[in-house]
């Protein structure tokens, strides 16, 4: 089933990655290289089905959604969960024995080995992922380019697939990342496994969303959000360290 917790994308290089990042504006700058240890990352964004199970089994509050009624999950099991703040995402990740990806890990998962601009290549493709269509000004169900006025079930856009097989990294929802956001962090970040600033006021997020222009979905762009607030355009996926996986395996 879509969104199953066992759907991983594996990064098998036992020696880690030496990876060059690209930048086109100040916030995304500077161009730099990092080394990343190997990891697994969820193939899909965490779904309503998965998050509901977490809430039901741990008594964690349901998503903070002021617009939806008690039927929040009804008929939308395979849609990505939204209206979860950063702390909700961390709580879920810990419950399943994982964590949130760092910005560097997220970007590596999206761009592959050739440093592409989009998960699907260097050229934008009309309707390749779930973004805010020009015809959606009224959020009506007619006239949309990609077929969805809001979020879509995970994996609905086969072109929105990274070289490693991770889905929906350009659109659908922004995704929470592990670290505190600092605009000039990569001018001073360590070469090996950068984990972000030690302190801050906002957390990093990556990707694009159904609510934003398609250009926001480029792999390289950096964004941030208040970690205590939940949004209708932010979700998450989880990461599993290779060493953690091997320790847990029989």
UniProtKB/TrEMBL annotation:
GO-annotated molecular function: formylglycine-generating oxidase activity
Record Pfam families: FGE-sulfatase (PF03781)
All copies of domain Sulfatase-modifying factor enzyme-like, residue ranges: 26-239
InterPro entries reported in the protein's UniProt record: CTDL_fold (IPR016187), Sulfatase_Mod_Factor_Kinase (IPR051043), SUMF_dom (IPR005532), SUMF_sf (IPR042095)
Protein name, UniProt field: Sulfatase-modifying factor enzyme-like domain-containing protein
Native source species: marine sediment metagenome
């Amino acid at each position: 089933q879509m969104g199953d917790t066992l759907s991983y994308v594996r990064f098998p290089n036992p020696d880690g990655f030496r990876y060059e990042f690209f930048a086109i504006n100040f916030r995304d700058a500077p161009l730099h290289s990092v080394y990343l240890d190997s990891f697994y990352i969820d193939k899909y964004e965490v779904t309503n089905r998965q998050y509901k199970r977490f809430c039901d089994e741990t008594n964690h509050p349901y998503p903070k959604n002021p617009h939806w009624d008690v039927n929040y999950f009804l008929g939308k099991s395979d849609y990505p969960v939204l209206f979860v703040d950063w702390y909700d995402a961390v709580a879920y990740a810990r419950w399943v024995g994982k964590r949130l990806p760092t910005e560097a890990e997220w970007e590596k998962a999206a761009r592959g080995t050739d440093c592409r601009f989009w998960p699907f290549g260097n050229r934008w493709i009309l309707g390749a992922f779930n973004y805010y269509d020009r015809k959606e000004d009224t959020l009506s169900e007619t006239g949309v380019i990609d077929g969805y006025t809001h979020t879509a079930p995970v994996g609905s856009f086969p072109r929105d697939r990274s070289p490693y097989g991770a889905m929906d990294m350009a659109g659908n929802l922004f995704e929470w990342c592990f670290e505190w956001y600092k605009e000039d962090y990569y001018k001073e970040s360590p070469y090996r496994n950068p984990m972000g600033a030690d302190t801050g006021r906002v957390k990093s997020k990556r990707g694009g969303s159904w609510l934003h222009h398609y250009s926001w979905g480029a792999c390289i762009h950096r964004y941030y959000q208040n970690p205590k607030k939940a949004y209708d355009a932010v979700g998450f996926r989880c990461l599993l360290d290779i060493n953690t996986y091997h320790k847990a395996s029989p």
